Amino acid sequence: MSPFWLADELIGSVSGFKAAHSRELSTTSSKTLFNLGSDTDSQARLHSSSLSEADRHATLADLLIDSAPHLRHLATIRIDDSKFRITSDTPRHKLVTPVEDQRHPGKPGVRLSKTQKTFEPEVQDESSGDERSQNSSATEGESTEKDQFLHGIPLLLLIIGLSLVVFLISIDRTIITTATPYITAEFSSTADIGWYGSSYLLTACAFQPVFGRVFTLFNPKWSYLLSMFVFEIGSVISGWAPSSAALIVGRAIAGLGSAGILTGSFVIVATAVPLTARPIYTAIVGLMFGVGATIGPLIGGVFTDLVTWRWCFWINLPVGAVSMIVMTLVYHPQPHPGSRGKVKDRIISLDLIGNVILLGAAVMLFLALEATLTGAAWASAEVIGLLAGAGVTGLLFVGWLWWKKDTALIPPAIAKQRTVAASCLMAFFTYGALLIHTYFLPIWFQAILGYSAIQSGVAMIPYFVSNALFSVFSGIFVSVVGYFTPPAILGSAIGTVGCGIITMFYPNMSMGAWIGFEILASAGFGMSIQQGFTAVQTVLGPDELAVGTAAVVASQSLGGAVFISVGNNVFQNRLASLVAQTNIPGVDVRSVIAAGAVAFRDVVPAEDLPAMLELYNAALHTVLIVAVPLAGLSFLSCCLLQWKSVKKPTRPSEDAEKA
């Protein structure tokens, strides 16, 4: 840089000096340097015509010293010295060619040997650096993703283990139905029939939200293994129960463990599988829940007829042990990035008080539903009091959540999120309709078509298979396309139409007709049933994922439990009303219902059996009609889902680029 650049700013007349010249430290310059000459004198000497070129430059150095004392050392530098040579902005001679320009680009097409690839000169543009940076970031992200998620054999073993456990906890919900007559005969406990199933469903529903907090605050692997251990303990107590009370306690403990297993299974899938592939694996694990609940009565009947009803619970022990071993060996989640605090503080953060309030509301609701199943009228003081108590406690629970805010069992910020709320409603109504079909269609096959328990299970195979296949197909669709809303809306719409067609079943219809109707309804539910989990995992962050998943699972369990009881009440009341209107002599409605879908033929006189079959068919049609509005409400809930993609953006966002 030229030493005259500062002078150009100080005095406009020196802007014409371009070339740098060497100089000796003149007397004038030295005098100015040591005696601190006047700035005005320096300017006068600079414009004097009597000065020589050398003196003029010496005076300019004096002016530099006077104007910027902190640059005084520049005035004393000998610029004829090669080490301190100073050039102007417009040098007289061409600068040395940069090293990059000295490189020979190479001659295109040159080969050193016949087998060597032809040389092509590398052409670099401005974007090459950005591309290398993006490729480097992508490679780094891919390596991080590979370290975080499971692949290959470990992932396969993990999914198989999760599917088996979900299948176990699912069949435990319904396997007791065919074994109940043998249990009540052994324990002489007819009054406890309702509690054999309800004790399991009660704890499974009420403790879902608290396990959402558990999987958020504690290690998911050990939380899941603890849930499985609790489930196994409950199965042991149920299998070796010496009394009816012990069986009820064992069922309640098993239900508590199943709450953690069901929530944890979807959380583990979310932590072990990338978001883009997650819908497929979520569908695989989720369909096992539906299949297990459907074929549970068939498995229970096989165990009861061939061995003993206790095998309905003992079967959980070996299968559960294998799944626990697989989980221990192949699943190693990433540690939490931040500090989670002390164990005591995390236990307090579970909001156990809120869970107690929720449990109280659930107990009163289930007691009211069980009372109606045992003959109590809906208008009775007992049922009204229990329903009112459940409603008031439910409002208290909502107020508690609002007061606790982010530390609540289900934080209001998550519950009010549009997609989360829509997913919970969709799960509640979809599972209500689905379980009405899985409970009452086998009864229709047995009572109207005269099938045995095993034959009715075989008749439900098209329903199971179509549900499973379309659940997986929809998961693949979401993984490829990215959006979960279209299959949810389309599936619920198809399911609604299928529910309406199923109400048209009649005794003499062909096998192909009712198989086609089964497939239509089940395929629709299969497309939509798992989208709630995918939706929640897409819109929520990692720290909120477990709570949101638990909310959807709790909604499923509650919807199934409530509408099974509602369906039973509708069926019994409708059948009693029809029998009273028809006035069939010698027929006791309660004895007909208690006898079951097959044995009721032995209770009714032979001459009255055709008329009774018509009434039975009409009552079952009324129950199946209940599924139609439930499917319609599920469709409306799906329309509220946000249009979010599970795929990660291929290019960084504008904010990321700016950062």
Helical element count? Answer: 29
Mean model confidence by pLDDT:
75
* Fold-level CATH name of the largest domain: Growth Hormone, Chain: A
**The CATH class of the largest domain:** Mainly Alpha
Radius of gyration: 40 Å
Helical/strand content category? mainly alpha
What fraction, in percent, of the residue positions are helical?
over 70%
**Straight-line N-to-C gap:** 35 Å
Largest β-sheet summary: none
Question: What percent strand?
Answer: under 5%
Number of domains: 4
Q: Explain this structure to me?
A:
The protein has 659 residues and is mainly α. The protein is built from 29 helices and no strands. It folds into 4 domains: 80 residues, no CATH class; 186 residues, MFS general substrate transporter like domains (Growth Hormone, Chain: A, Up-down Bundle); 58 residues; 238 residues, MFS general substrate transporter like domains (Growth Hormone, Chain: A, Up-down Bundle). The chain starts with a helix and ends with a helix. 42% of the residues are buried. The N terminus and C terminus are likely disordered.
